[in-house]
Specification:
Elements lengths: L2 H12 L6 H11 L4 H4 L18
Helix pairs in contact: 1-2
Length: 57
């Protein structure tokens, strides 16, 4: 089940500007949908927004 997720992580690490990222993101979202009505508590915590001028995500 995590095949596309593993591909996505590898691609983000090796080629973060690859045109195939969007397709892999959509596949992972389809395989592992997020249901915030059941798992919103998993998002609790302290969130910070960081900005960088780097070309990588």
């Amino acid at each position: 089940m995590g095949h596309h997720r593993d591909q996505l992580v590898d691609l983000l690490r090796q080629k973060p500007n690859n045109a195939g990222l969007q397709t892999l993101i959509e596949r992972v979202e389809h395989e592992q949908p997020a249901d915030l009505t059941n798992s919103a508590d998993l998002l609790s915590g302290v969130w910070e927004l960081h900005w960088s001028s780097s070309q990588q995500p």
